[in-house]
Design a protein that fits this description.
Number of domains: 6
Strand content: 5-15%
Shape: elongated
Strand order of the largest sheet: 8-10-9
Amino acid sequence: MYLKKRHIEILREMKNTESQAEIEAKLPEDFQIRAIELYILGFAELEGGKIKLTDAGRKLLEITDKLSLEELPDVIADTEIIKMMELLEETGKIPESWMEKLRERKLADENGLTPFGKALLEVYRETHPVVYLTPEIASFLRGMPKIGTLDELVTYKNSKLYGDNIVNALQAMRLLLISPPTEKGRAFATTPAAKLALKALNMIPVFARAIVLRKEDFEMLKAGKRNAELESMGLADEKGTTEFGKAIMDTYEAMGRVEEKVLPMYLLEDELSVLKAIQEIEKKYETNPDILPTEKEIERRVDVKDLGAILHLLESKELIERRLVKEKDTYWLTEWGKEAINFGTVSPDAMKAVTYAESGDVPIAEWVLKAQEENVVKAGVTDKGRFYLRLSREIKRKPFITRYDAAILAKTPRKKYIHRDELVALVQDYVGGDEKEIIRAIGEAEAKGFVVELQNGMVKLTELGDKVKTAIENAKLQEIVKVKFSVTPTLYNVLKVIYDNIETFNRIWKEKGEARDYKMEEVDAIRKHLSLSDDEIKKALTMLRELGFLGTKSLTEAGKVLVEAYL
């Protein structure tokens, strides 16, 4: 979206005449640029010296009819303003500096979005922009950085002597998004549609004219039809839609599409140290099979605060796998783990810069700067960023719930947002801890899929977070928040074996003999399904009962809900 006062002035003149020449005589300043922007936005049709209102243009004219343009700033709405409006509508709260911008545009007041704000957002969502790629736009798109701070984009634009109209056109086509301002400034990101546009542009050796695709052109190509105009642009020929035409159609379809965000993967220094220690042990194992990557062997090589927790965390991310070798519990690198060693550490915020951009949303400056600092982003996404994005997308996370995770889940309300600062205070009151640690824990809880934190700092439970919250609240929550970590991949695997084989365990539980912590029959049944030592199985059964996920002679409702949350 990119809407200026001049666009509305032109639309108002179009009520009286469709002649571009007549309107330009009255509004000469940048008329041709603004008319093309109205065309790209889907509010006007340009045809043989005429400019005609579309249905969307009529609706925009209607909702802006009573506005006093003198009271409004030059730019009424752009991608930055739209994001503010979306966040206000979704969460009910945005920073005061953002509210001020919306108020001066008559888009919001003390009650939230105004009727004008709501109507404009509706028009934005209902209107599909036109593909309009000129040689100049194509050249800019090819050379520009694909993600970064707004200052970097402005520097690129000015160094190449491009005008603001290029940036405006890319925003109008939803190929470029600019974030609202935060303490660190503003960020920008090209969208997945921009990536598809570049793929299409690379198919044509010489760019001779503007490539334009409207809704009716898209429908014609989709139906396998063609006309002289589509043929002249190379979008169709006698055989039907060309490969170039299909690529432009893909671009059209992707414009404005926001996909579900991938959970951002993270890897901290302690975790990397442990991965390297396992790698070292594995090399020694090749020549001396008696040296195994057990917890004790790993502990000899690393100095970390809580090795047990880190091993569980790495297993939850599929970076290591646990195996029983020579009757010992051992930890081995997966292929993902081996690659992660090469790329090094990464934070949740750095990865959010990438996961937001890849989904068609805009990251904030703080995330982008973190991504640049950690070599996840340069002019675009780096090899490191692509690896962790692939890892984020493809692994099946296993549950690992720390004391902080449990507190965050307990204090995050259902079906509504809470500001991160308020959540930090609630968690601190509940379980104590350092503010920075809790902020980091919220980022890690997001990477685990429990919560999502938006650009305005508002936090909400995810569907998984809601289910896990139910599970821990049905269990012994007061006991859960006392331990460093309540659920590990091992505990979950034991619980799932019981869930999957409930008839077997029901028979074991009916037999005489109390199962306070565990019965050997339970251990024997679990051993058939998991590569774990008897001691580890016994520990898991004891812990599951102490925390309320397993009863003495039954799988509790909390245990059932927890297993089903991850199915």
